[in-house]
Design goal:
The complex is a heterodimer of chains A (255) and B (1050).
Chain A (H helix, E strand, L loop, with lengths): L7 H29 L1 H4 L13 H7 L4 H4 L14 H8 L10 H9 L5 E2 L12 H6 L4 H5 L16 H9 L10 H4 L12 E4 L5 E2 L15 E4 L2 H11 L5 H4 L8
Antiparallel strand pairs in A: 2-3, 2-4
Helix pairs in contact in A: 5-6
Chain B lengths: L20 H10 L5 E2 L2 H4 L5 H6 L17 H12 L14 E2 L15 E7 L6 E8 L2 E7 L12 H10 L8 E3 L2 E3 L1 H16 L6 E5 L5 H13 L4 E4 L6 H11 L4 E4 L6 E5 L12 H10 L11 E6 L4 H5 L2 E4 L2 H14 L12 H16 L4 E5 L5 H13 L7 E4 L9 H13 L5 E5 L3 H4 L6 H5 L4 E6 L4 H4 L3 E4 L8 E4 L5 E4 L12 H6 L9 H12 L6 H11 L30 E5 L13 H4 L8 E2 L4 E3 L1 H7 L5 E7 L2 E9 L7 E5 L29 E3 L2 E8 L3 E2 L22 H5 L5 E3 H6 L3 H4 L24 E6 L8 H9 L7 H5 L8 E7 L6 E7 L9 H4 L5 E3 L5 E3 L9 H4 L7 E2 L28 E2 L5 H21 L15 H5 L5 E5 L6 H6 L4 E2 L11 E4 L1 E3 L22
Parallel strand pairs in B: 8-9, 8-16, 11-12, 11-14, 12-13, 16-17, 17-18, 21-26, 23-25, 30-41, 31-40
Antiparallel strand pairs in B: 1-32, 3-4, 4-5, 6-7, 6-18, 10-15, 19-20, 21-27, 22-29, 23-26, 24-25, 24-28, 31-38, 32-33, 34-35, 36-37, 39-40
Helix pairs in contact in B: 5-26, 7-19, 8-13, 11-12, 11-13
Classes of the chains: A mainly alpha (255), B alpha/beta (1050).
Chain lengths: 255, 1050
Amino acid sequence: MPQVFNRGANGLARMSLVILGLVVTSLALTLNELQRSPYVTRQGERLEQPVPFSHQHHVAGLGLDCRYCHTSVENSSFAGIPPTKTCMNCHSEIWTNADILEPVRSSYRNNTSIWWTKIHDLPDYVYFNHEIHINKGIGCASCHGPVDEMPLMYQHGSLQMEWCLDCHRNPAKNIRPIGDPIFNIGWKGPSQDNQVWCEQGTGDCSLSGPYLQKSGKPMLKPIVFTDQMTLGKYLVAQYHVRTPNEIQSCETCHR
Amino acid sequence: MENHTDNLVQITTTPKRKLSLQEVRERLSAAKGKAYWRSLEELVDAPGFEELLENEFPAGVTEFPQESGVSRRNFMKLMGASMALAGLSACTRQPEEPIVPYVRQPEDLIPGVPKYFATTMPFPTGGIPVLVKSNEFRPTKIEGNAMHPASSGATDVFAQASILDLYDPDRAQNSSYRDQRRNWGDFHDAIDAYKVKAGASGGAGLRFLSETIISPTLVWQMQTVLKKFPSAKWYQWDPIHRDSARSAAKQMFGQYAEPIYNFEAANVVLSLDADFLYASYFPGFIPYARAFTKRRKMAEDTPMNRLYAVESFATTTGALSDNRLRMRASDIMVFASALAAALGGGGGAATGLSDDEQKFLQAVAKDLKANAGASLVIPGEQQPPELHILAAQINQALGNIGKTVSYAEPPEVVPTDQFAGLRELVGDMNAGKVDTLIILYGNPVYDAPVDLDFEGAMGKVANNVHLSLYRNETSRVSQWLLHGAHYLETWSDARAYDGTASLVQPLIAPLYDGHSAHELVALFTDTPEMTAYQAIQTYWQQNGKAAGDFATNFRRWLHDGIIPNSAPGAKTLTPRAGAPTITPLAKDAIEVVFRPDPTTYDGRYNNNAWLQECPKPLLRLEWDNAAMMSIETAARLGFEQEDVIRITVDGRYVDAPVLVVYGMPENSITLNLGYGRYFSGRAGNGFGFNAYAIRSTKTPLIAVAEKLEKTGDTYHLAVVQNYTLIKPHGDPKWMNRSVQGAEAVRRDLIRVASYDQYKKDPDFAHSQTFDEDPQSYDSLYPGFDYTKGYQWGMAIDMNSCVGCNSCVIACQAENNVAVVGKEQVKIGRDMKWLRIDTYYTGDLHNPRAFFQPMLCQHCENAPCEPVCPVGATVHTPEGVNTMVYNRCVGTRYCSNNCPYKVRRFNFKLFSDYITPSLKPLRNPDVTVRSRGVMEKCSYCIQRINAARIQAEVEETRLQEDDPTAERKIRDGEVVTACQQACPTDAIVFGNINDPDSRVTRIKAQPRNYGLLTDVNTRPRTSYIASVVNPNFEIGDRTDMPGKTFIGEQS
């Protein structure tokens, strides 16, 4: 019986094994990249909204505080989406005829809610709580990014679990003095030029000099911070932030 | 399973081959009784039982049900290839979701923060004051109102489940006239026209039929109508009414009065068929259970009380009792009469009592006498008036009245003789004297005495109007159906069992625009537009007894959920002497006793799936009712378990399956009401049988069976007692018992001593040679330091647990636990996180039962954790064993490795993701689990997290002023759902690292013990051993405590 395969077939067989390995590996790599890609996470996507609301204009341009609209951010798990009434506080006076604002006016007129599209949309099994982050020194910008530079809102972080854990493993990277820096979107952290003074043994910090926040009196033992990691570590201790082991525990976010 | 083939898979219900009751009796007489058992199958080593031990779930449970035509195994073969790609599904993008803000946000609303509002659940025996959790103004959970003494913060099983009725998709959603859709305005017009017509005759043809009304405002409105239409009449009807108690009061005092019991002052309590330890169908259950168990917590200054129960059924009260006598319901009066004679309170001689009964009677009489003035005799609600009279006379003879018994106004504002009333109404209807019948809630076509033929009488009335939450049997034959408002949707008021009034306020606008009885009755007055809110305002403005501004008072009442000083004062009454005549039932006659069902009550909760799937106490039966009888009676009559029998009473019959109940008297059959409905809804239709079909005006409480015969059919009952068992290991002697049966003995799951023994040796739960130290402390895994921070733990007092099921439903409501349906229950897929294990011990015919609430034990060395291949169940640093649903892939290894069998698996998509009306019901803080996911008790981790966040945020705010301020979670800030609902305070939860916390102090008691600690699981949940206080003159029905320990028996 003649040979079915000639000698060259051996080479082909070896080759195809290598190719198969390559295909499998590259598929795995591709899928790995894909599931972290903005396509899946919707990172950076400007979703269509009924009104093209500009955070850039309202925050950077007009200087509105985050809490003017997101009223419950300090007191509730949910930061709050402003009711139509909040928009109409100003827009019953200015831009009253702008076409772009018609959905707002009609909502107010007809008493029907505006249906926004959710940008920061966590899976249903994740229980994120704004209140505790704000009250432990995590600023809005740490998660939501440079909102003041966003003419149309988009998701800044990937919001994947590794992204959350990145901070939960080392909160010092992002923690800020409680007070104005929390809601100051542009705050870049302490540096040689922008020092932070904290009263020793307390979380009472000031950006404008060694003065106590509430009373304005001079600090007794001010410490000066010029970089985020030193300040962060100090604040983590002062704010009694639980240990990374504790805040990485599953029940912190999943229940 | 050996008998299955790949394409035909049978799901066996257990046991595979049933033993006949005759065989059971033979085996029982041969075998020495086991010390503890869970069910008959276990007791007699029934075939198939061992299989239940081997497999956690009944065989075949993991297979696809046959109807789908393909077995799971086949499915896996076919799908093998495509499964390889399943991992990719994790890469799907999240769908875009809308977020919808208010147009004008309510000023006091913080989105995401729940609010609590006080209101009252109306119930025929008195309102139950509750506090309702409201998430963004949708009610999600019922809690007790701690400010009202009728609740003290606890609820009963009906109050917990009532929230599901609000969202029930089967509610009537619109009104109709002759099946044509109408609205409220149409009805308004019709009534306006009718008023003009009826005005001339004074409303001679107008009749109102309501449920028992406990709302003073509604009665005031009703009386206004009756003034306007002097010839109109108003009747009240509830199938579980209190005619016996009322008629007894009338005979004794010449006026209506409600006895109020003071359990805390009673050293000895005798229950004469009174089931006061299960739910509010005994008026005052919550405060009574709390007061009763206060005397059983072994506090140093309060000696333990003693409970005697003489009863005709197996109730939780009887299970808790120290001495129990089983008697036919009709014989209990004979006993009471003899007891009255023995105590000098009238009554007749003890005729026809057996020696045992005589012995019991003498001992009870002696004990009661010794505790005169500090004892209590309670008559059963389902007993005739004569027994109520006898009980009052005994209390009088003992000098208890004024000390442990006092009298007050009944909670129903206008007490009536409901049977007489209904008879009169039906007479008028049949005589053609009624042209318009207004039925306010209730369901008389279903539950009125069968001989009155209410449906036929309705046919003779031109206009039947039914205000109802459901389109039920009565609405079906009414011309008008008006869809009603649930109590969470309307304003009203209600009186509690002791007469204290409180307001009912709406938690949500009526979901379907339903209207309340207040608004309907108002249509007949001169102010037809009066809303329910205006009605209660008007009434209380005139009748509120508080000084000062009404508006301020009203807000205070609303906030507190109680109207102070609204209880009509106590009455000083003396029962008249003179023994009532009693006619004993022939010894060999078989009585049929009608009782409210422990879960569907009189049928009103028939469509409540939580209650349908709540195991009835002791019976552990779900979804059905049954003809319940003792094993001897069943065997003598030749009936087997689940045989359908025909019960004939007075020429009428009903077919019902037989269920053998331990501890029932001979020649007695109990039928629970509230089943066998066909116009109920998807949860209730077709389950059980309708006992009303043989309940007539002649024999409303106890009937005599004319004939009992097998129909030849069998009917499967879903009894959950045999599930969640595992096979014990070790000594072959114990091999064929469940962990709960055998280990209860071998490893002392139940530890108990008599009161005397406890006083001698308070450490009895450990001083015996119990197998509780682990043989080895070795672990493959490094230990974890649990000495720092919060460490959560729970203690459950076995002596206080009355098995009332409140915690079971509270857990279901809090944690979004799914209902699975009868078929799934039958194959052991019940999802409840918390179950109340019931253990029997002693004499099969009159056993003692123990209740052991069983939930995840949160072992420090949790056996479930190392076997999970994906780390979906892990420990938190605070010692909670937590489930991560999104990691779970459903291998069920954890469940397999759990010695306590507390893990529940979603074999199917049990959670309802589709029905829109059920969505607002869910607790937003707990994940709704999908198919293929394991779940279990989380120690209410959402409540722990909420308390922690609150404490930490408050700390931050305190530090603004004082940088060194600390704010820890305080003891009592984290309350689990089961703990909160518990009427007897049996469950305590807290930080076991805090030496001053309540849970630490309770766990420090010598009676504290853990379950299966010998396998080194180190459970965080512990139990407080039982102490029973039997009167040894009678002997104990378990022939154990005071002599030897149960653990020593074999």
